[in-house]
């Protein structure tokens, strides 16, 4: 019989954390050994024997949580947003000092969202224009979403490699910022609407045609297979993996 993986969830009372607790409790090969909320010190992890920390908290604390895990010999699976290039580089530097440890930073755990990003990047080489729209519930703290940022970066990278120019745009005046955020030359628009969960649409346009690639998470259970995949894989994937696609055979 293979060993059971011991898992600690940070942000366990949150929307994602509470789903993750249920998913881990339902998996025969995983054991939930700690479920921490905002009042609980990280030191409560001591003595739990946790192999993996799952971070589903808020952007302001996620980096410190992951550093603590790595420095205490635990792998980490991270869904929390806010991991910009500076934070990622600091994490790579830390992992260089802990070469056995794995960290997965997953902007989106839903397989459909991962595929939408990959498909959009591939398609964006063949279209003159591309823009990203993300749509979420109004309780979301950050905008644009981590997923939309990641998608824009994948698109920008694919277009750079293919020598595609930035999308044409004749806008001369936009005092209210109607054209959205610009992430590596890709415009990203954020909608917050009661009733929504997590949605992303990538619009690709060229003369006489448009391609739309859309993903909808209607329920947070959509993220759980990805969380469980991360938990099962991170211990055998040392270093930093940015994006769940790093654990999938998609290329
Ligand atoms: N990667 C993915 O697939 C997904 C990522 N997310 C991201 O995950 C994060 C959490 O999202 P939600 O669950 O919707 O938010 P939420 O606000 O419902 O949950 C966050 C929880 O973290 C707790 N918390 C805050 N500081 C803490 C600390 N120091 N230690 C432990 N717990 C702490 C809060 O009290 C709260 O219960 C966000 O950054 C969100 O964007 C959300 C959905 C999917
Ligand atoms: O806050 C959310 O809800 C979500 N956050 C992640 C993001 O910012 O991309 C993932 C998903 O979109 C849901």
UniProtKB/TrEMBL annotation:
Catalyzes the conversion of 4-hydroxy-tetrahydrodipicolinate (HTPA) to tetrahydrodipicolinate. It is an enzyme of class 1 (oxidoreductase). It catalyses: (S)-2,3,4,5-tetrahydrodipicolinate + NADP(+) + H2O = (2S,4S)-4-hydroxy-2,3,4,5-tetrahydrodipicolinate + NADPH + H(+); (S)-2,3,4,5-tetrahydrodipicolinate + NAD(+) + H2O = (2S,4S)-4-hydroxy-2,3,4,5-tetrahydrodipicolinate + NADH + H(+). NAD(+) binds at residues 11-16, 79-81, 106-109. (S)-2,3,4,5-tetrahydrodipicolinate binds at residues 137, 146-147. Gene3D superfamilies: Dihydrodipicolinate Reductase, domain 2, NAD(P)-binding Rossmann-like Domain. One of its GO terms (cellular component) is cytosol. Residues 5-109 form the Dihydrodipicolinate reductase N-terminal domain. Pfam families: DapB_C, DapB_N. It is found in: Cytoplasm. Pathway: Amino-acid biosynthesis; L-lysine biosynthesis via DAP pathway; (S)-tetrahydrodipicolinate from L-aspartate: step 4/4. Residues 112-240 form the Dihydrodipicolinate reductase C-terminal domain. Its EC number is 1.17.1.8. The lineage of its organism: Bacteria, Bacillati, Actinomycetota, Actinomycetes, Micrococcales. The active site is at 136 (proton donor/acceptor), 140 (proton donor). Belongs to the DapB family. Homotetramer. Keywords: Amino-acid biosynthesis, Cytoplasm, Diaminopimelate biosynthesis, Lysine biosynthesis, NAD, NADP, Oxidoreductase. This is 4-hydroxy-tetrahydrodipicolinate reductase.
